[in-house]
Amino acid sequence: MPVTRVVDHGTAKLLPDVDRDRAWLLTVDGSPQSYVDLDEPTYLEFEYARRLAHALDTAAAPGRPLDVVHLGGGALTLPRYVAATRPGSRQDVVEADRGLLRFVVEKLPLPADSGITVHGTDARAWVEAAPESSADVVVGDVFGGCRVPAHLTSDAYAAAVRRVLRADGCYIANLADGSPFAFLRSQLATFAGAFEELALIAEPGLLRGRRFGNAVLLAGHAPFDLGSLVRRTAADVFPARVVHGDALRKFIGDARAVRDAEAVPSPEPPDGAFSVG
């Protein structure tokens, strides 16, 4: 049966998947947040989650344990995925909505040996206080409702992420935008000021301006395994393109890095873009 609870920032609902015995969809105020299958944590239903996973899969040699920071908790889908695909990884999950975090951990408990530690606090505050060079990967997947909060879009935030990452580490972020991509272009410009390497994963229709949707940003100092990333995203059930190099610079165009004083949330999605029921 569905389970509903009022959390700190809305009403959370866990909806069972009738086709999978222990799989659940998490929504907050009607917006899908996460999908997780407790029996098969490597099964990823959402397109954006699969693309985040492709980036995680190519961040290091297969199976190598990683130190990962997840900004944004949801149903802990990606942390469970990493625990299954990279046993021995140490993972910190940072979620500002403590009520949501308690709800998820209570109803969808983590295995005792998962290596996942959850923290109920603000993502930027946690990153700014974290030890320098302490993470291999930082995953940014924070949404207030359907929008990325403004304080997680600035050059100061990008600098804080850079400080936490090791020299060969990478930042992977789930963003949302639509044509003319003012927000997405500004985020790429912002992280271009903090990292030498950038790439973008998105569905071709989104890049052509046909719809509003999710795009995954990658930023790092060391070159990405682009060949593997391109193969994985192109062969996915939901094929996507990897944009980098000159094509990405052309996409960014004259966009400027975002300062704290001018930071704004990601745009409001069109009606029905991210909703169920």
From TrEMBL:
One GO term of the biological process aspect: polyamine biosynthetic process
Superkingdom of the organism of origin: Bacteria
CDD domains: AdoMet_MTases
Keywords: Polyamine biosynthesis
InterPro entries in alphabetical order: SAM-dependent_MTases_sf
PANTHER family: THERMOSPERMINE SYNTHASE ACAULIS5 (PTHR43317)
This protein's name: Spermidine synthase-like protein
Lineage: Bacteria, Bacillati, Actinomycetota, Actinomycetes, Kitasatosporales
